[in-house]
Amino acid sequence: MRIRQIELVGFKSFREPTKVTLLPGLNAIVGPNGCGKSNIADAIRWVLGEQSVKHLRAKEMEDVIFGGNETSAALGMAEVTLSFEQADEASLGVEGPEDGLAAQIARLSEFTVTRRIYRSGESQYLINQSPARLRDITDLFLGSGVGPKAYAMIEQGRVSQIVQAKPEELRLFIEEAA
Amino acid sequence: MRIRQIELVGFKSFREPTKVTLLPGLNAIVGPNGCGKSNIADAIRWVLGEQSVKHLRAKEMEDVIFGGNETSAALGMAEVTLSFEQADEASLGVEGPEDGLAAQIARLSEFTVTRRIYRSGESQYLINQSPARLRDITDLFLGSGVGPKAYAMIEQGRVSQIVQAKPEELRLFIEEAA
Amino acid sequence: TRARFKETFEKADVKFRELFVELFHGGRATLKLTNPNNLLESGVEIEAQPPGKRVGSLGVLSGGERALTAVSLIMALFSLRTTPFCLLDEVDAPLDDANVARFNAMLRRISERTQFIIITHKQRTMETADALYGVTMAEAGVSQMVSVRIGGAREEALAATA
Amino acid sequence: TRARFKETFEKADVKFRELFVELFHGGRATLKLTNPNNLLESGVEIEAQPPGKRVGSLGVLSGGERALTAVSLIMALFSLRTTPFCLLDEVDAPLDDANVARFNAMLRRISERTQFIIITHKQRTMETADALYGVTMAEAGVSQMVSVRIGGAREEALAATA
Ligand SMILES: Nc1ncnc2c1ncn2[C@@H]1O[C@H](COP(=O)(O)OP(=O)(O)OP(=O)(O)O)[C@@H](O)[C@H]1O
Ligand SMILES: Nc1ncnc2c1ncn2[C@@H]1O[C@H](COP(=O)(O)OP(=O)(O)OP(=O)(O)O)[C@@H](O)[C@H]1O
Ligand SMILES: [Mg+2]
Ligand SMILES: [Mg+2]
Question: Which of C59, C133, D6, D162 has the highest CB neighbour count under 10 A?
Fold first, then answer.
C-alpha cells in the first residue's frame, strides 16, 4: 500500500486546491523556509486522525483552515483527501471484524480517506467519499505504523527526542509494530 | 572583553589537556557528528557556573569527567579554565560593591576563571588561580548575558524553542540585559 | 498478547542492532525491557554505543548520534511489518555530510519496499530521491507546488523556489 | 528598577523590530508586555509576522522562521549592552541557503564588536568565519583539535576530520 495522491483544499497555507501525485519509492519535498512543506506533513497526519492541536502547531482545530493573507480573506473550510493504492502483496493487515468497514476497504485496490472541517468547528470524515467515523479511519490504519502516534511519521525537530522517549512510550511503538 | 583561550583537562571526551586559542570576531568550531564540538560549549557553560546536569547532558555532575573509552580508563578529575582579555572600552559593568572581588577583577586587562571537579563530587572554583566561590563567578558575569541562564549561550537544538519560552522566562532575558 | 509482544520485541531488537551497526559502521546497540518479569507492562529502553566509545546513557550522545540512533529504531520497526509509508520531516538536519550519505543509502534500500515522503534541505538527499516536489509561495502567504527537475536543472528550479 | 526594566524593554523592542526586518527582508515583529500595568511582574511576549503573512501566534511559524525570529531577539538583546561573547550551537541547522546567507551577513556585522563562538555544519557559515577550529576523534572516544585552513584547503582538512 502507498499514497498515490494528496489533495489539499484550504488547508493551512494552501488556499487553492492543490494535488500532489506521489510515486512509490523516495519522494522529497523541498523549498525555502516557511513555504509550506511541514503543512503538507501536517495535512497527512490530520487526515489520518490527528487530534492534538499542539502537534498541528495550532491553538484550535479551526486554525488549520486557510486564515487569509495580506490580499485575501480567510476561508470557511479545509479539506484533505489521501488516495491510497494497494498492490496485492502489501495490503493492510487490518485488525477488527472480517465484515467490518475496515476489512472491506482493505481488499480494494484503491481507496480514499478524507477529512473536512468548517469554521464552526464541525468536522467530517469520509472513506471513499461516504461518511465515516474517526474510529473507522483509526481501525483502518491500526497497527500499521501510520496512526497519529505511530513511529512512521516524524515531525520536524523531533527526531533526536525519539531516543529520549519514556520507556512506556517506547513500548507503545513496539506494540504498534506487533 | 572576550575569551582569549579555553583550556580543557579531562572534560568529557577531552582526555588530553587541550588548549583552544580564540580570536576576536567570528570563531567557527567544526567537525563530524560526535567528535566533541558541543562538549566544548558545555565546558564554557560549566565553568561559568552551570548547575543543571540536564543541560550538561549528564546524570550526575561527575559525568563531565572523562569516562574512559575502549582503550583507556576513566580519569579522576576534570578542569576547565577560561582566560578573558579586556580592552578598556568593553570591560564588564560589574554589579556589586566597588571593593568587592568582582570589581577588582573587572579592572584587570586579563583574568582567568577555572572550575574543577573530582570523582568524589568535590568541586572547586578559582579566579586567577586563587580559590573563589561560585557566587564570585556569577557576580562577575551578572547582567552580562553570559551566565548559565542567559540569552548569549544557545544550546544545540534549542534555538527554535526560544520564541516559545513562557512570558516569565522572556522577561528574565530582558532583565538580564538591563 | 504477552507472547506476541515478546516476539515483536525480540525481532525489533535484532533488526535495531543490525541497522545501528550499518549506520554507525560499527558499535553496538540493543533494546532492553525495564521489567522483563512483567511482559504486559514492561517499558522499553535503548542502549547505544557508537564505535569505540563507552556505553553511556543516551543523554551523552551528540545531536547527530541521537538522530542516527532514532533512525535505526524507526527503520527497524518498519521492517517488522509492511508499513504503508513513512513521513520524515527534516530528520537529516543534525547530520554531517558523511552521515547524510549513510542515511541516504539506507533510505534508498528500504524505499524499494516502502514509500517515503521526506522533507529536506540537504542537497545530497534531494539527489537520491526518485522524485522532487517543490513548494513555493509565489504569492506571499499562499503555498503552491512547482515542478523541480533533478540534475543541473535542479539548481535553477530550486533557486526559483528560494 | 521599574523604570529601568521599562527602558530596557523599549530599547529591546526597537532593536528587535529592526533586526527582524533585516533578517526577513520585511514583515514586522514586536515585543509585548502581558501586563503593562504591573511593570514589576509583567511577562514578555513576541509577536512576529513574516512578510506577506497574517499575524499569528508563534506556533504557526515554520522551523526556519522560528529560528530566525529567535536570532533577531538574541541579537537585539546583545546590542543593548556590551556582552563579552556569544555561543551558538548549530542555530543555522533549520535554515535554507538563502537564510543562512542573511544570518551570516548579520553575524559578520555584529562580530565586529562582539566575539562569537559558533558550532556549525553549514559550509557557508564556515566560509564567513574569521577562524575555523576543527575537532576530531583520531582515537575513538577521544577528542582533539586539528587545524583547519580556509579556502580550497578546507575541503581536504574537513575531510580529514570527517
Ligand atoms: N491556517 C493557515 N492559514 C494560512 N497560512 C498558514 C496557516 N497555518 C500556517 N500557515 C503558514 O504556513 C507557514 C509555515 O509553513 P511550514 O511550517 O509548512 O513551512 P516549511 O516549508 O516547513 O518551512 P521550514 O523549512 O522553515 O521548516 C507559516 O509562515 C504560516 O504563516
Ligand atoms: N564524560 C565523558 N567521557 C568520555 N566521553 C564523553 C563524555 N561525555 C560525553 N562524551 C562523548 O562525547 C560525544 C558527544 O560529543 P558532542 O556532543 O560534543 O558531539 P558534537 O561534535 O557536538 O556532535 P554533533 O555534530 O552530532 O552535534 C559522545 O559520543 C560521548 O560519548
Ligand atoms: Mg518545516
Ligand atoms: Mg553537537
Answer: C133
Q: Which of C119, C121, C136 for a ligand 1 pocket mutation test, highest count of atoms within 8 Å of Cβ? A: C119
What is the Cα–Cα distance from B44 to B52, expressed in whole angstroms? Answer: 14
Closest partner CB to D57 (pick from A32, A38, A59): A59
Alpha carbon distance C42, C27 (integer Å): 26
pLDDT in tens, C56-103: 778 889 999 999 999 999 999 988 877 889 999 999 999 999 999 999
Q: Do the Cβ atoms of B33 and C53 come within 8 Å? A: no
- In the block, cell 497526519 appears at A45
CA–CA separation, A44 and A33 (whole Å): 19
Residues A116 and A79: beta-carbon distance below 8 Å: yes
Question: How many helices and strands in chain D, by DSSP H and E?
Answer: 5, 6
Query: Which chains border A (3 or more CB–CB pairs < 8 Å)?
Result: B, C, D
Interchain CB distance below 8 Å, B160 and A160: no
Q: How far apart are CA D32 and CA A83, in angstroms?
A: 45
From chain D residues 55-74, the ones with a CB under 8 A of any chain C CB are: 63
Helices (H), chain B: 37-47, 101-106, 134-141, 159-162, 167-177
Tens-place pLDDT, residues A118-155: 999 999 999 999 999 999 998 888 777 777 667 889 99
Task: Read off the pLDDT of residues C6-43 as tens digits, 9 standing for 90 and up.
Answer: 999 999 999 999 999 999 999 999 999 999 999 999 99
User: How far apart, in whole angstroms, are the C-alpha atoms of residue C17 and residue C28?
Assistant: 6
